Amino acid sequence: MLGLRTEFVYLECRNCGSLRIAEVPSDLERYYPVGAYYSFSDGFRWRVFARRAALKTAAKSRWLLGILNRSFQIQAVLLMHSFGFEPSMEVLDVGSGSGSLIRDLRSAGYKYAMGVDRFIASDIKDSSGVLVRRGTLSEVDGSWDRIILNHSLEHMPDHLGVLSELRAKLSPNGQLIIRIPLVSWAWQKYGTDWVQLDAPRHLCVHSERSFGLAARKAGLRIEAIRYDSWGYQFWGSELYRRNIPLIDSGDRPDRYFTRKEMKEFHHQAAELNHKHLGDQAMFVLSAS
After folding, report:
1. Average pLDDT, the chain
2. How many domains does the chain have?
3. Is residue 197 exposed (0-12), middle (13-18) or buried (19+ Cβ within 10 Å)?
4. Which of 45, 240, 255, 269 is 20 to 30 Å from 190 at the Cα level?
């Protein structure tokens, strides 16, 4: 991603198919630069303003939420429309970066939503108080109705310990919403050029089998799986095959691929999702 060209060794489990870094770097924070790592950015201001204005209006109407959910890929809308989120719920986003999702939820009336991230410089606050707390899951008190890990679990060591701790922090009838990359077709095709291997930040990348094993050991039940990979697994990996870091692409894959190629990437991703072979998925879990 950052073009450092440092090499890291990963281990592949013959039993469950998961990948794990052999040794976690002692200077891991070096690979999360505030000025360059994407989760510390809130996006273009005009887009953010428009998105939150739409969220504020749509949150009052199930019908409008449905339209937004079908028309735009906005995570807050998906959570509110499809996973039973209500404004009165206490919502925790683990590994929330600059808190973009929490800002979205608060703009939609979720005043009890909060994030936690170990890599931010200090607590982030807004008019309602702490928006994102600098720290780890262990430092967050209380029980939560919904806990979200949006591509953050893979950045943590000891997944069984994390999942067990998440279970303990769920309120009665609470749910976990966990999005992670998955070892599947893209890994077989691209190997170490697979963009979602993302060394060394991704300490452990699960297969669907390995995540199911870990969840059950932690006392969790998987209620639903939604594969949601997209063309990124193709164009990002193809850039790596050409020795082009994402930071050099400027988030503009259209500089390297034709419109026809990009369309085909997204079409292939949709087909892989349908076959449960996409390279990422959303898991909904509850205490078993």
Report:
1. 87
2. 1
3. buried
4. 255
Residues in the chain: 288
Q: Is residue 179 part of a domain?
A: yes
DSSP β-ladder status, 124-126 and 129-134: antiparallel
Residue 170 maps to which CATH number? 3.40.50.150
Backbone angles phi, psi at 261, to 5 degrees: -65, -45
Residue 118 has pLDDT above 80, yes or no: yes
DSSP alpha helix (H) spans, 108-254: 159-169, 185-190, 208-217, 232-241, 246-249
Domain that holds residue 202: 10-287
User: Is residue 233 situated within a structural domain?
Assistant: yes
Q: Tokens 């890929």 belong to which residue?
A: 73
pLDDT at 256 exceeding the cut of 80: yes
Strands (E), 96-166: 113-117, 124-126, 129-134, 144-150
Adjacent-strand bridge partners of 7:
none
Looking at the chain, the whole-number percentage of residues with pLDDT higher than 70 is 84
170 has which bridge partners?
Answer: 144
What average pLDDT does the segment 91-114 reach?
Answer: 88
| 3 part of a folded domain | no
Q: Is residue 4 part of a domain?
A: no
How many whole angstroms separate alpha carbon 213 and alpha carbon 220?
10
- Cα distances (angstroms) measured from residue 283 to each of 82, 157, 197, 212: 13, 19, 19, 10
Q: Which residue has the higher pLDDT, 109 or 209?
A: 209
